[in-house]
Specification:
- This protein has one domain: tt1808, chain A (Alpha-Beta Complex), CATH 3.90.1570.10.
- Helices cover about 20% and strands about 30% of the residues.
- The chain has five helices and 14 strands.
- The strands form three sheets. A six-stranded mixed beta sheet has the order 1-3-2-6-5-8, covered by helices on one side. A six-stranded mixed beta sheet has the order 4-7-9-10-11-12. Strands 13-14 form a two-stranded antiparallel sheet.
- Strand 5 and strand 6 form a beta hairpin.
């Protein structure tokens, strides 16, 4: 994300501007606005693969899966972001009647890229951890078979589990689903992934 300081910008100003935008998206953190770049074909394919698995497993239950267009409000950090994917089971909470700014995901997914990985692991995760509803944070590499799941424990600590084999499944108990790693990377060109690291 490229920093574009706009002194005096408040959250509601950012939200009003984003709702008018058609071709651009920006994230907001405590008065600063960050332009978002577009993702690669692999980035979008992985998000679609994850969305498809979660949607099919939760469609007959009171659960909700949101793609990249849904905004997230993190009131404790005075922030508004666009996670790659969010999900929850139970009552949805929104910022206002427009229902385009979610307040209470239990799962957030980010697909990593060279330009965003540092922020997704660091600053953005620090923001997301301030959501009382968040139970699981999933990071998915697009240049290798690597899925990392952070789970919030009862003591407030986050525990990391890594899944680096296509035959593995990633449990997501907060929404009663699981991800098959092979399906996460379905239709991704093997030459673009570090398959040799997996012994394939």
């Amino acid at each position: 994300m490229a920093l574009q300081p706009k002194p005096g910008l408040y959250f509601e100003d950012w939200l009003e501007g984003e709702r008018r935008m058609l071709d651009e998206r920006h994230e907001y953190v405590a008065g600063e606005v960050f332009a978002m770049s577009g993702g690669s074909a692999e980035h979008h394919a992985i998000i679609g693969n994850i969305y498809g698995q979660l949607w099919s497993q939760s469609k007959d239950r009171p659960c909700h899966v949101y793609g990249q267009g849904m905004r997230l409000r993190i009131a404790a950090a005075d922030a508004g972001t666009y996670p790659d994917l969010m999900a929850l089971c139970g009552e949805q909470q929104f910022h206002d009647g427009r229902r385009d700014l979610l307040l209470n995901p239990s799962l957030i997914v980010e697909v990593l890229s060279d330009s965003t990985e540092g922020d997704d692991r660091g600053g953005k995760f620090a923001l997301y951890r301030r959501l009382p509803s968040l139970k699981e944070y999933l990071l998915v590499a697009q240049d290798r078979v690597s899925v990392e799941l952070y789970v919030s424990g009862a003591d407030g600590r986050w525990v990391l589990s890594a899944y680096e084999d296509l035959g593995m499944c990633v449990p997501l108990p907060s929404i009663g689903c699981e991800l098959v790693v092979a399906e996460v990377y379905d239709r991704i060109d093997p030459e673009l992934l570090a398959w040799s690291d997996q012994g394939l």
